[in-house]
Amino acid sequence: MAIIINTKKTGIPVQIGELDFTVDTTDTGLEQLVESYKEIVKDMEKFDGEGIGDAKELLAKGFDLFLGEGSFESIYKQTSSVTECAKYLEALVIGVTEELQELNKVTQQEKVDKYLKHKKKK
Questions:
Q1: What CA–CA distance (Å, rounded) separates 40 from 52?
Q2: Which pLDDT tens digits describe the chain residue by residue (122 residues)?
Q3: Cβ contact 82:9 at 8 Å
Q4: Beta-ladder partners of 20
Q5: What predicted TM-score, i.e. pTM, was given to this entire model?
Q6: For the stretch 5-22, what's the b/e string if a residue is b when 16 or more beta carbons lie within 10 angstroms of its beta carbon?
Q7: CA–CA separation, 37 vs 47, rounded Å?
Q8: Which candidate, 105, 9, 21, places its Cα nearest to that of 68?
Q9: Do 9 and 22 form a contact (C-beta atoms < 8 A)?
Q10: 51 torsion bin: left (phi>0), alpha (psi -120 to 50), beta (else)
């Protein structure tokens, strides 16, 4: 008799316009995301709102963090607006945060269900 264990893909699919990406939700990916996010928040606090070049650099850091190296360039080619790209990044951060909270909630619920199932057997 074979033991079959189904695996789950780790990643959150993201579509921006016609572009498809995946946010890495492996343990390593999440650790990097948290550390890099802290750096970006510090950079955003220093940003004075002047200069498209500085804004593009900050947005590039954010998109590349979530979606991988070079993702900002692809997105910017599609839209060519720093303002719109900033809106996309905000939506991305909110969406990823909600997805991660939901994934964690499911994991906690699975633990509760397993505990209750085990307790019923006794």
A1: 17
A2: 889 888 877 899 999 999 999 999 888 988 888 888 888 888 888 777 777 888 899 999 999 999 999 999 999 999 999 999 999 999 998 999 898 888 777 667 777 777 777 767 66
A3: no
A4: 15
A5: 0.75
A6: eeeeeeebebebeeeebe
A7: 15
A8: 21
A9: no
A10: left
